[in-house]
Amino acid sequence: MAQAITDQETEKLYKVTVQANDTLFSIDSIFPFTLIPDTVTLDREKVTFIHRLFFQTAQIISVRISEILSIEADVGPLFGSLKMTSRFFVKNPTRINWLWREDAIKMRDLIQGYIITAQKEIDCSNTPTEELKLLLQNLGHSSTEK
């Protein structure tokens, strides 16, 4: 019996590991506004902000989707920025500037959609990647945007 439980847990771990490598969307800040571009990556388990400080030096912040309190996109005519607040960084939100406007909005929509599914305890693990991206973006999209 103990072996069967171990095999089930190993299978769950394998599935989560494979899904965590399934990148839904990734964006980089724009050169030359940032000499070493920062990156925001969304996968099925977490959001990762990578602040590159110097060549081969970075601050990497990963937050599980269920721990994110809010995601904000500040956008102008061409550029935008993302600001994420989580349970762990309530007083010190994570921000990445100098993103393309459309990329910032899309990432915000995807993360917001994922936040909503996490709050409603909806399991997205079996949804195909392209379908998941479309559903999350539609769910997280603000109808008041122009």
Structure explained in plain terms:
- The protein is globular.
- It is α+β, with helices and mostly antiparallel strands and 146 residues long.
- Strand 5 (68-75) and strand 6 form a beta hairpin.
- Strands 1-2-3-4 form a 4-stranded antiparallel beta sheet. A 3-stranded antiparallel beta sheet has the order 5-6-7, covered by helices on one side.
- Helix 2 (101-119) crosses helix 3 (129-140).
- The longest helix is centred in the first third of the chain and has 19 residues, at 2-20.
- The protein has one domain: PH-domain like (Roll), CATH 2.30.29.
- 25% of the residues are buried.
- The chain is built from 3 helices and 7 strands; from the N terminus they run H-E-E-E-E-E-E-E-H-H.
Q: Helix tally?
A: 3
List low-confidence stretches: none
Determine the fraction of residues in helical runs and give it as a percent range: 25-40%
Q: What is the chain-wise order of helices and strands?
A: HEEEEEEEHH
Shape type: globular
Q: What is the CATH homology-level superfamily? A: Pleckstrin-homology domain (PH domain)/Phosphotyrosine-binding domain (PTB)
Strand content: 25-35%
How many strand segments? 7
Mean pLDDT, nearest integer?
90
Structural class: alpha+beta
Kindly, what is the distance between the CA atoms of the first and last residues, rounded to a whole number of angstroms? Answer: 58 Å
Could you tell me the radius of gyration in angstroms?
17 Å
Broad CATH class: Mainly Beta
Largest beta-sheet details: 4 strands, antiparallel
* Spatial ordering of strands, largest sheet: 1-2-3-4
User: Any idea of the CATH topology?
Assistant: PH-domain like
**Tally of separate domains:** 1
Quickly give the CATH architecture. Answer: Roll
